[in-house]
Amino acid sequence: MLCVSGKDFLFWKKKQLSKGGDQQSLAVLLDCVGGITISDLNLISINPKENLHLKNNLEFLESVWDDHLLKSCPIQYLCGTTFWRDLELKVSNKVLIPRSETELIIDIVFNIFRGKSDKFFFAELGTGSGAISIALSLAYPFSEGVATDINHDILEIASKNYINSSKQTNLKFYCGNWWSPLENFKGKLDLAISNPPYIPKDTYEKLPKEVKNFEPKVALVGGEDGLKHIREIIQRAPLFLKEKGWLILENHFDQGEKVKQLLIENKFTSIEIVKDLSGIGRFTIGRYK
After folding, report:
1. Is the pLDDT of residue 1 over 70?
2. 45, 69, 97, 210: most buried, per Cβ within 10 A?
3. Residue 102's closest CA among 134, 76, 143?
């Protein structure tokens, strides 16, 4: 364990931010690679005479930060870790970095199933790092969940994240495209969730290079209009949901009304477009019949 004075550390931190980047990315680097938590940062800002203990020296941390700035590579990929709600998750460039706005999916579920002792059966389609399913399995320990993804390597990451986050056994992983691995669960789901690829093809070409050059295209692009996968998920959902079962989808900022119409066409009711913290209609939910 390496030791540095608070004064020297704060000078170093100021120097790094003067090069570019943002405080949140630097905080991820400091926590994941340096072993310095947000609490540590707050304490040292109040009392810079204290010493900090690091997992890696400042020279190494600076080299990672410089790599991040030079290549525009997301800091989460360089660290191999990201934070989502209260989870610390392993990530690689094979999985999409879970976004903070997606955390609201968990709050939407909390509004539907209000008691932690509630027992329900849920599925997540396209789990990626496993963030949503792991958070739900922890929040509802008496419930059962299944999570799918099309890629074995991605499922291995999600499975390891689940093992690292929980001693529970109420979440299982299946490999395959959307609903296809869940044929044995037709008519049994109380809840299905998906944050599928929904970015229109033309919009993808205009994304920032830190997204387009590093994050997996297959997890982002939803066909010409962005709705290719959402259509498939909605059209097949009635086969798998119980009557009165819920479907929760994340969509592009301007797709809410179109997703709502797709739900209506497939006999969903209680349809609602839910706004994120920026006031954007980020989620569309519905109940089957």
Report:
1. no
2. 97
3. 134
CATH number, domain of 100, equals 3.40.50.150
Q: Which domain holds residue 191?
A: 92-288
pLDDT higher than 80, residue 116: no
Cβ atoms of residues 194 and 249 within 8 Å: yes
- At 104, phi and psi to the nearest 5? -65, -20
| C-beta neighbour count of 167 within 10 angstroms | 5
| CA quadruple 244, 264, 279, 221: dihedral sign | positive
pLDDT value of residue 38: 87
Quick one: CA dihedral 86, 91, 93, 96, positive or negative? negative
- What is the residue whose two structure tokens read 């297959």? 218
Which residue(s) pair with 89 in the sheet?
Answer: 82
Residue 135 forms part of a structural domain: yes
**Which residues are registered as beta bridge partners of 53?**
3
- The residue whose two tokens read 């941390």 is 61
Read off the tokens for 288.
């089957």
22 shares its domain with 128 = no
Q: Is residue 282 part of a domain?
A: yes
Q: Determine the Cα–Cα distance for residues 145 and 106; give it in Å rounded to an integer.
A: 14
Q: How many domains does the chain have?
A: 2
Span 181-200, average pLDDT: 97
Tens-place pLDDT, residues 246-267: 999 999 999 999 999 999 999 9
% of the chain beyond a pLDDT of 90: 84
- Please state, as a whole number, how many other Cβ atoms lie within 10 Å of the Cβ of residue 206: 9
